[in-house]
Amino acid sequence: MSVSEPVAGILLAGGRSSRMGGGDKCLRMLGGRPILARIVERLKPQVSGMVVNANGDPSRFAPFGLPVVADSIAGFAGPLAGVHAGLEWVKANRPGIRHAVTIATDTPFFPADLVQRFLAALKDTPALVVARSGEGTHPVIGLWPVTLAAELEASLQRGMRKVGAWTEQHGAIEVSFPEVEVGGRLIDPFFNINQPDQLAEADALLKEKAP
Questions:
Q1: What is the fold, at CATH topology level, of the domain defined by 7-205?
Q2: Which of 94, 81, 103, 105 is CA-nearest to residue 146?
Q3: 6, 58, 143, 169: least CB-packed within 10 angstroms?
């Protein structure tokens, strides 16, 4: 599989952010900028286009100039529903693209070569790929064949909600990523901001200077 193959980006922002007190976690400020702005900036060179998966009024994402697609599965079915919505959007709007990469919008330090390394793990046919680091597998950070959209919808209709269980059942290839350096410290590349203290930690990392 060519590492130059075009890939679409799906930014998963459909969660309810209960541990952050509600609202859109990705719109919280990190180092003086919305977390989502950092995600977009990091992913843009790696993909041929992006779509945001989010529920509710899409106008709150207007400053980013990206299309927004809501879950088609009702009831806040979690990130698996967001992956499905994103794949359906790609299928309808980017017909020449075979894969889409999914990014959780609370992981501002994900690798700058994420997509390239995912593609390098593929053989000659499309396959499902997920990220792994020292902290374990990260199934919401993955490379998804667009052809999986229908199968994913059927699973959601049957009540499947766990991304990790679904990717494992479908034989996902795991690609391991080392720690990354931020502010002079080595951290997990998929450090995620789920709670206020993690947002404060990420903010402190950006303010620290490498020795």
A1: Spore Coat Polysaccharide Biosynthesis Protein SpsA; Chain A (3.90.550)
A2: 94
A3: 169
